[in-house]
């Protein structure tokens, strides 16, 4: 599967080329980076080492280019605000193996599904309670959710660049 491919933009136009949504269009051309969200092949994802940290124009968070043998894939990245994660593994775990009070992200809603919760820049969920079959987490929206213990997640919070305060409109230019 290709890792990078072009994104088609409509510019607010329909299949006839007529403007149907006003004030759309322009912007810089972007390449879409396909991310590996799947947790079906659990051992495959654990064995990937972070090769580099990559900027992604389509997301608020940075992503990691991981290498497994000779296969390269992109993965959403968790960690702190520095680049000392290069050469380390991304730690994918089941919810039953996470301690109370730990921060997690990219949590799947059902066992064996893709990660859905907590994927934006700086997002994290917190484990509040563990039982035999269920785990209670607080989502980034502060909503409480009860999930199955067999669901997968990644330890940490989503990697993000520090917020730059501009103070006034012209400062960005």
Quick description:
The protein is mainly beta and 173 residues long. It is built from one helix and 13 strands, in the order ββαβββββββββββ. The protein has a single domain, classed as SH3 type barrels.
Write structural notes for this entry.
The chain is mainly β and 173 residues long. The chain has a single domain (35-161), classed as SH3 type barrels, CATH 2.30.30. The protein is 3% helix and 32% strand. It has 1 helix and 13 strands; from the N terminus they run ββαβββββββββββ. It has one helix at residues 42-46; strands spanning 4-6, 31-33, 49-54, 63-68, 71-76, 92-94, 103-105, 107-108, 115-117, 125-130, 134-138, 144-148, 152-155. A 6-stranded antiparallel β-sheet has the order 6-13-7-10-11-12. A 3-stranded antiparallel β-sheet has the order 3-4-5. Strand 11 and strand 12 (144-148) form a beta hairpin. The longest helix is centred in the first third of the chain and has 5 residues, at 42-46. The radius of gyration is 19 Å and the shape is globular.
Secondary structure topology:
Elements: E1 4-6, E2 31-33, H1 42-46, E3 49-54, E4 63-68, E5 71-76, E6 92-94, E7 103-105, E8 107-108, E9 115-117, E10 125-130, E11 134-138, E12 144-148, E13 152-155
Antiparallel strand pairs: 1-2, 3-4, 4-5, 6-13, 7-10, 7-13, 8-9, 10-11, 11-12
